[in-house]
C-alpha cells in the first residue's frame, strides 16, 4: 500500500465487549469541552449521512444544545446520502473544500486522508474521560497511536432477519453453520419468500458477503496482514470467493438484485426487508435504524432479529469473529480550533452518544451506555459481539477507497456469472497496484 500505517485489522475485543454489557453508570462523566472557549467565534461546515427523520432531528437537537454553551459557533449541517458520501468527500478533499467536520469510517480511507494532510490529529484535544469510555470504538479511529475521530457508534455485522417470515417458512432455529444456512435458504424459497435482500448495484453490500466468508475461511493472522500482504496467496482467499460463488449458485437473492440499491427507498434491499418482501440481509448494526426508516410507519420493524454469520466446516477463522465498523466524526486539518474539537467533545458526552444510538437505532460507542439498547435485534448483535474473539474492520475501508472499490467490484462480477479465480486475480492486481 502507498501508506505504511499501523491500524488494527483484527482487534481482540473480549474484555472490551464484556465492559460494554455492564450498562450505563449513573454519573455523566463525559465532559463537554472547555468552558473557557464559550466566547469563541467560528463557523463550521458539517457533513453527515443521517438521511432519516430521527437522525436529522438528533443533529438538530445536538447543535441547538451545543449553541447554548457555545453561542458564537455556527454549525452548518449538510446531509449527504450514504452511497454518495465517500465520493463526494474525496472530491471535496481534492479541491481543498473539505468540510470542517465529517463522518469518518477509519482504516485505509482514514490513512489516505492523513497522507493527504486533510484530517486533524485530535489526540491531545479529546477529553480524557471520553477516551476512557470509548474503548474499542476509539481504537477503530486511531492510527499510529493518534486519534483522528470521535466515535459515536459501534457496528458489528451479521444477518438481520424477519422472524415473521421465518415462522411462515416453519424455520424454528436460526442457522449456525453454512450447511444449516443453506437449508434455511431452501425453506424460504419453498415458502415463496426471497431469502436474502441484496443491493448489489452499490457493490459494497455484495462485497460484505466475501468479507464475512473470508473471516471464516482465513486465520486471524491472515486477516490482520491484509493491508501488508501483496500476494494474497493463502488458499483461504480463493475459498472465500468460491463461497460467494456457491452462494450465488443457490439463487438466494431478490429478483433484480444486480440493479437493486442498498438503502434508498422501499425498493432498496433494506426496503425489501422492511416491508416483508425478503427475509434476511447481511449488514452492520445500523440496520435496525435504516430498516425502521423504510417501514410504512417509519418505526423499527418489531419482528427484526439478528444472528451471527454461520461457521464453515474446516475454516481457519474463529467461529465467533465478526466484521465491524464505527461511525466516527473527524475535524479537517484546516477546521477552526478549538471550535471543532469542542464540538467533537460535546457530541462524545454520554448523553449524546446515548441519543445517537437511539436516533440511529444502533449500538453506542461508549462502553457505559448499553442500557439504551432495547431493540431485540440490536440486543442480539450486542450479545454476539460480547462473545467475539476479535473483529475486523470492513476490507474496503481497510484497503482504502480505490483498492477497496476495486475489490468490491470483483465480488459483483461473481454475482454476474464470473469466477472465483478471476475475482481473486482481480483483487491481487488491485492490492499490488495500490
Coarse morphology: globular
Helix content: 40-55%
Largest sheet: 5 strands, mixed
Gap between N and C termini, in Å?
5 Å
- At the fourth level of CATH, the homologous superfamily of the largest domain is Periplasmic binding protein-like II
CATH class of the largest domain equals Alpha Beta
Strand content: 5-15%
Strand order of the largest sheet: 1-15-12-8-14
**Mean residue pLDDT:** 90
Give me the count of strands.
15
Q: Look at the helices and sheets and give the structural class.
A: alpha+beta
List the helices and strands and how they pair.
Layout: E1 10-12, H1 14-20, E2 42-48, H2 53-69, E3 73-79, H3 82-94, E4 101-104, H4 107-115, H5 128-134, H6 136-139, E5 142-143, E6 146-147, E7 150-151, E8 153-156, E9 158-162, H7 163-168, H8 178-190, H9 204-217, H10 220-224, H11 235-249, H12 269-274, E10 280-283, H13 287-294, E11 304-307, E12 322-325, E13 328-331, H14 339-347, H15 350-360, E14 363-364, H16 376-386, E15 390-393, H17 395-399, H18 401-414, H19 420-433
Parallel strand pairs: 2-3, 2-4, 12-15
Antiparallel strand pairs: 1-15, 4-13, 5-6, 7-13, 8-12, 8-14, 9-10, 9-11
Helix pairs in contact: 2-15, 9-11, 9-18, 11-19, 18-19
